[in-house]
């Protein structure tokens, strides 16, 4: 009897949802290169080995398990997702895709089957950007992007990326190679494609009573740091009409951001998810405010237009309130369509396993949009209760995970059926 199952994948997500796989017992948070990340890497590596894979780390802190092809020197199909979380996050976002990838390999190994291409299960260390102010650091490293711009990138505790990598290296059981993050770059000639299973971060599948669906593309994203500077002063002695209150200005801007986003199409969204007011005392008028702005839409043009409208409104408000404004772009991710051929194969896999040929667009960003610059990529969405994500309430039915695994295995069957020497051999 084959033990591989989506149900086991769900159980493993639950296991990784508590300490030591979280930096705190109060809620789940597994930040990039933290002690919790190291613990999750060590445990996930054990499961990879049990499934029949050899295991290694790259210079970015990505865990990679390889299941060899029927012949040496073949390209690899990458299957995976990320294992980091947002603060107070859920137990399935990202990590379920890694666990299901392991189950795919476990099934092949238990049935004694080798494919004409290798499979590499990859657990990206950072996708969320919840520790350092750049998201998807690890998938960016895999495609060879200069992910930091500087080795002095620091987190909220002023710990540099270099320092964090050094601490992490001494906390994991798998040796890490030497080199900068960019040394993790993979050669396109070695990679067949990328498959990522992920919970749907919205209620579309649930509303249509579907357990799984293929992702046809990922929305465009922009992320900025807005800094407003006014003048700090005593809360009791500064008359209201004379104040240059940076926080009041930021609050007005945020109300306008919401109005602008609501006036657009349903896929146009803007979010202020982080704010810092300085000096941060109850009896001091805030003299400086920094906030993070995330802007998304289904295409680059509408995303850019919304971002420009927000910028114009913010400048007008700051001028009226005698505040200075600086805006720093942190992230620019173009809309990322999935590979048409891979989407068709995923639809075929859905149909072959008794599911409708359902496709949908992801409003959330994923490592797949980065990997699409390296190789053909596709995603499989799995129903999540209420479409809730980035929240402890994330919940996946084990039966849905079992169905997702069945679809993924069928996708592998279809990949095998179209394989030939030219298709799978490395350049």
Can you give me a brief rundown of this structure?
Helices cover 33% and strands 22% of the residues.
Can you walk through the features of this model?
The chain has 427 residues and is α/β, with parallel strands linked by helices. The protein folds into 2 domains: 6-219 and 335-424, Zn peptidases (Aminopeptidase); 220-333, 2-Layer Sandwich (Alpha-Beta Plaits), CATH 3.30.70.360. 33% of the residues lie in helices and 22% in strands. The strands form 3 sheets. Strands 1, 2, 3, 4, 5, 6, 13, 14 and 15 form a 9-stranded mixed beta sheet that branches. A 4-stranded antiparallel beta sheet has the order 9-11-7-12, with helices on one face. A two-stranded antiparallel sheet has the order 8-10. It is globular and about 80 Å long. The mean pLDDT is 93.
């Amino acid at each position: 009897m084959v033990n591989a199952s989506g149900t086991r994948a769900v159980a493993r997500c639950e296991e990784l949802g508590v300490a030591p796989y979280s930096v705190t017992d109060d809620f789940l948070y597994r930040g990039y290169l933290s002690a919790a990340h190291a613990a999750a890497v060590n445990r996930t590596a054990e499961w990879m080995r049990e499934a029949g894979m050899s295991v290694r780390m790259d210079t970015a802190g990505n865990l990679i398990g390889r299941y060899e092809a029927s012949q040496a020197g073949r390209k690899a199909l990458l299957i995976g997702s990320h294992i980091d979380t947002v603060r107070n996050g859920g137990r399935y976002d990202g990590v379920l895709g890694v666990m299901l990838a392991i189950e795919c390999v476990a099934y092949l190994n238990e049935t004694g089957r080798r494919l004409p291409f290798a499979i590499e299960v990859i657990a990206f260390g950072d996708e969320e950007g919840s520790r350092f102010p750049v998201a998807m650091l690890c998938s960016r490293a895999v495609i060879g992007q200069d992910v930091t711009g500087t080795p002095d990138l620091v987190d909220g505790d002023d710990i540099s990326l270099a320092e964090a990598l050094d601490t992490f290296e001494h906390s994991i059981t798998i040796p890490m190679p030497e080199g900068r993050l960019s040394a993790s770059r993979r050669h396109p000639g070695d990679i067949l494609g990328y498959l990522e299973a992920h919970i749907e971060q919205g209620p579309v599948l649930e509303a249509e009573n579907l357990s799984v669906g293929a992702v046809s593309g990922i929305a465009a994203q922009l992320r900025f740091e807005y800094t407003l500077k006014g003048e700090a002063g005593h809360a009791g002695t500064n008359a209201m009409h004379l104040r240059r209150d940076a926080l009041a200005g930021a609050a007005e801007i945020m109300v306008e951001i919401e109005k602008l986003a609501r006036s657009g199409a349903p896929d146009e969204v803007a979010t202020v998810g982080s704010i810092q007011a300085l000096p941060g005392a109850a009896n001091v008028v805030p003299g400086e405010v920094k906030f993070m702005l995330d802007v998304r839409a289904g295409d680059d043009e509408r995303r850019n237009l919304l971002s420009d409208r927000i910028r114009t409104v913010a400048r007008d408000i700051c001028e009226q309130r005698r505040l200075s404004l600086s805006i720093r772009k942190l992230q620019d991710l173009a809309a990322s369509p999935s590979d048409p051929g891979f989407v068709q194969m995923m639809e075929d896999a859905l149909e072959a396993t008794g599911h409708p040929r359902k496709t949908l667009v992801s409003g959330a960003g994923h490592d797949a949009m980065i990997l699409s610059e390296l190789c053909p990529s596709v995603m499989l969405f799995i129903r999540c209760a209420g479409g809730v994500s980035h929240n402890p309430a994330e919940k996946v039915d084990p039966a849905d995970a079992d169905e997702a695994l069945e679809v993924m295995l069928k996708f592998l069957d279809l990949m095998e059926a179209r394989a030939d020497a030219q298709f799978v051999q490395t350049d």
